[in-house]
Amino acid sequence: MRDSVVMHEDRPDTAPGAGPVLELAGVRKTFDGFVAVERIDLQVAEGEFFTIVGPSGSGKTTLLRMLAGMEHPTEGDIIVRGRSVRHLPPNKRPTCLVFQSLALFPHRTVGENIEFPLKMRKVPPADRRVRALELMRMVRLPEGYYAKNVTKCSGGERQRVALARALAYDPEILLFDEPLSAIDYKLRKTLEKELKDLHKETGKTFIYITHSLEEAMVMSDRIGVMRGGRLVQVGTPEDIYTRPTDRFVCEFMGEVNVLPVVAADGAYVCAGLTGRFTPPPGGPQPPKGFIVVRPEFLHFVEDDDTTTENVIVGTIYNEYSLGSRMQYQVRVGDKTFIVEQSRRHACSGAPDRPVRIGWHARDAIFVAE
Amino acid sequence: MATDMLEAPAPSETAPRPAPGSRALAFLSAGARCALPVYLLLAVGFAAPLVAVVAFSFATPRSFDVFATFTLENYATIFDPANTVWLSFAWSLGFAAFTVALLAVVAYPIAYGIVHLFGRWSGLVGILFVFPLFISENVRLFGWVLFFIRNGVLDGSLKALGTDGGPDVLFTPGMILFGMVYTYLPFMLFPTVLGLSLVPRDVVDAALDMGATRLQAWREVELPLAMPGLLIGMLLTFVLAAGAVAEAKVLGGQSVIVITHDIEIAFTYSQNWPLGSALAVLLMLIIGGLTLAALSRLDLDRILGRK
Amino acid sequence: MNPQEQRLRRARLMTAAWTGFVLLVIYLPVLCSALASLGKGRYFLFPIRGWSVDWWARTLDSIEIGMLLRTSLALAAAVTVVAVAAGFFGALAFARYDWSGRRLYQKIVLLPIFFPQPVLGLALLLWFNAVGMEMSWRTAIVAHLVWIVPVVTLVIAIKVYGFDPALEEAAFDLGASRLQVLREVTLPILWPGIWSGALFAFLLSWGNFPLSLYTTGADSTVPEWLYAKMIAGYTPMVPTLGTMSTIAAASALGIGALAAMLMKRRRAA
Q: How near does any CA of chain C get to the CA of B150, in Å?
């Protein structure tokens, strides 16, 4: 398990020699002895879209609230552009949080909400209005909404108001606390793309937290996976998907097949399964670990197939339609495997009929115990 | 969403089927049937007496022939410039206004503490503030007499310490005001607690996060959002203080005659029910006007229904 | 410790200090009464020279005071029973059912709370007289109910707001009769609200003075008697009975809270 990860040196959008915009140095937070966040070291580059993913209770919200200044680290330091902000209250920090609840002011109009940070800075009303309308265009809110009561806005509109309001503060870093979690699937997909566009357009650093790895994959430049207050892996979406460093990260990505295996004569065996399994080529081969196979990499093995290294025999006992794909549950002994195939490669076999399933060694992931 | 937190759970529209035997009431909705006992009580014990008071206010002075005569004489007497009863009104409304202002300042920090700072002690603190309501106000006010009176707790203690003794504050208007602030504190405190707990924590945090100072966040966000509760408290204490009489009698020692005392005198010693009724009607107009104006603007589901 | 936590700690300390001070002021006169009841003399002089419980003994022995207590108790008990019954249904109408007259009803229920009690007492006095009713502690029941029923309604309504009507529907769906639903689902869930409503009703009636003053006729409750003696004819029985009444109220509250706690624990077990 790694809990300190240094930013990529080869990021194209980081000016050479420029330091990271945000740096966490050994940040730790305890509540009455309970460790919420355990010694996190992290650097985020200027203009990066960094997402922290983790299940509830993993400490990601606490971490974000520490960045915003609403919680204070028990140990460690938070540095923005080389300056420690650890002792600064939220209103003196160059960060702005978009709350999960959005925290729009219910007694104010859309325009007043967006202008709030400007008003606090005593910007003249006329200038505030110009800026608010500009931001409304940016987040695709119609101009007519300026005088609308926020409580009368729809969910998606409120997201946009919250975003515009945060941008009006003009922070160095925008923080997002799962703002899309209460939105229905279709609208969420649209808003994810818009947020990504907005990130590009503003060039600001975004730090986003979510429990959905799928959401993180769509938007982020880099992802940090959190569990039990620790950052267990940090990397690009590609890294996380293809080279997860432990079983938790694998399983967090959705349904996967996990085989606990032990080494035996250059291959691996799994208790309760007949057959020997070839580990993915390259990489270390410790005596114990897990072979992880994603459902889409498991396929039905025809009798004349000789290229599939790993084959097991089981029976289909359930099948589901996922739209363009089919999912099967295949029982092998007391274990259940999940197989996902496009309809073209669907299995024609009837339930309870024995089937052969298998995977190529190169498609599996090996994680150490 | 922030605003969702303010929306009360919608009451269900489904009503249980009417019970057999309640056929006479079957044309009423379930809610109306449940409200019936309360309505009956309020009709007999609240509306009817008030109607009687209004009727009496138009009867011949010093008579008991209600509905038999109609005269505006009682009102004429009150508005007669020679009559000093306006002074009683002025005292009562003045006391009420000062009571509200002082209570707002006294109660706000305590309410804030109960909602945000006291944590698991909040319940106990709440009970300690409710409990005085269960002791009759005259007992508590009399305790102050024992405290401030010559050779009382304060005076006696100071003398025992070798000084000249306590200040002579009993039976002054200031003492009456103090008594009112003292008596009506819970009526300001609990609506304020209710109001403050209506303010989502996130929204205040968001204001601070976006550069507002503590004062700005309070003025722009917390105060306006807590206002419904504060208004209820202010209205309640104003109305109760305007009609209060025990403070003036026990602590004021009759140095000031408040309006309710005038009404009581008319009803009891001078046996002039019509005049007393006319005074009561005027007081009720002031109180009722204020109450109805404020209540019509409040959404009670939102204030009480939050969970 | 960082400056913000320090600030929070300071705010908490200052608020707690202010709250403590206000509580001290609130209970100071109650304490003064208790002190006055423990003096030996006929008149209250502080510091107390001779301590004694004479006045407590005399107050307990007094037949007159026994009658006062019986009247106050009977009144409070009657008020509690009626107020809880009316308030329970009143709260359902307030918060449970969505019926056309609800908004208006919610406001009408509040009106007696927003009304000065002495004026209400006088209005009731006039009304009872006008309809020729003999005034006694029984008429005072009506007077107390006028302001206590709305309070109990509110106390129970707050609990009702948190009650999910789907539970009742589910019970009906599972074959329960109306009465069974009430007994098995509605009442047990609303029980804490009803219990606190009952406590409020009893204690508010027990301590009420302005309504009793004008509506009990020849009968007298504890607060009324205390008031009469305060105005004319002080005896140390005044603070003694006042203190006793306070202790009784505190015990009732304590026992009520304890019973609620035991009930909760038994249910949880």
A: 9
Query: Is the pLDDT reported for residue B193 higher than 80?
Result: yes
With beta carbons under 8 A apart, name residues in chain A contacting C2. Answer: 72, 86-87
- Residue range of the domain that includes A109: 22-249
**What residues form DSSP beta bridges with A281?**
none
User: Does the bond joining A286 to the residue before it have cis omega, within 30 degrees of 0?
Assistant: no
Measured between beta carbons, the chain B residues lying within 8 angstroms of A69 are: 209
Pairwise CB contact (< 8 Å): B208 & A97: no
pTM over 0.90: no
Interchain proximity A91–B220, CB inside 8 Å: no
Question: From A181, which residue of chain B is nearest by alpha-carbon distance?
Answer: B1
**Are A185 and A155 spatial neighbours (Cβ–Cβ below 8 Å)?**
no
Crossing angle of the two packed helices B137-148 and C222-231, in degrees rounded to 10: 30
Between chains, do C116 and B34 touch, taking CB under 8 Å as contact?
A: no
List chain C domain ranges. 67-268
Assess contact for A368 and A286: CB atoms under 8 A. yes
Residues of A in contact with C5 (CB under 8 A): 72
> What stretch of H or E contains A155?
helix A155-168
Strand partners, C126: none
Rounded to the nearest angstrom, the gap between the alpha carbon of residue B259 and the centroid of all alpha carbons in its chain is 16
What is the domain extent for residue B205? 80-305
Angstroms from C165 CA to nearest CA on chain B = 6
Task: Classify residue B19 by its DSSP letter.
Answer: P
How many angstroms separate the CA atoms of B59 and B71, rounded? Answer: 6
For chains B and C, CB pairs below 8 A equal 312
Contacts of C24 by beta carbon, 8 Å cutoff, 6+ apart? none
Does B146 contact C97 at a Cβ distance shorter than 8 Å?
no
Number of domains, chain A: 2
**Percent of chain B's residues with pLDDT above 90:** 54
Low-confidence ranges of chain C (pLDDT < 70): 1-2, 269
Mutation test of the interface with chain A: which of B1, B116, B302, B306, choosing the one with the most A Cβ atoms within 10 A? Answer: B1
- Indicate the length of chain C as a whole number: 269
Q: What is the C-alpha end-to-end distance of chain A, expressed in Å?
A: 10
CB B260 within 8 A of CB C115: no
Determine, yes or no, domain membership for B23.
no
Q: Which value does ipTM take for this structure?
A: 0.89
What is the rounded average pLDDT for all residues in chain B?
Answer: 86
Q: Which of A29, A363, B267 is nearest to C128 (CA)?
A: B267
Domain boundary among A186, A218, A249: A249
- Indicate the residue among A249, A282, A312 that finishes a domain: A249
Within this chain, do residues A73 and A121 fall inside the same structural domain, yes or no? Answer: yes
Half-sphere exposure of A20 (CA within 13 A, CB side): 21
Q: What is the CATH number of the domain that holds B290?
A: 1.10.3720.10
Q: Express each pLDDT in A57-97 by its tens digit.
A: 899 999 999 999 888 899 999 999 989 998 888 888 999 99
Residue B11 has pLDDT above 50, yes or no: no
Q: Which CATH architecture does the domain made up of C67-268 adopt?
A: Orthogonal Bundle (1.10)
C-beta atoms of C97 and B138 within 8 A: no
A34 and A131 both lie in a single domain: yes
Q: Which of B3, B205, B208 sits opposite A106 (nearest CB)?
A: B3
> Cα–Cα distance between C115 and C121 in angstroms, integer?
10
* CA–CA gap between residue A89 and residue A74 (Å, rounded): 15
Chains that touch C (3 or more CB pairs under 8 A): A, B
User: What are A284-337's pLDDT values in tens digits?
Assistant: 778 888 888 888 888 888 878 888 888 888 888 888 888 888 888 898 888 889
Here the tokens at position A171 are 């922070």
**Which B positions 126-145 lie with beta carbon below 8 A of chain C?**
127-129, 131-145
Is C4's CB within 8 Å of A72's CB? yes
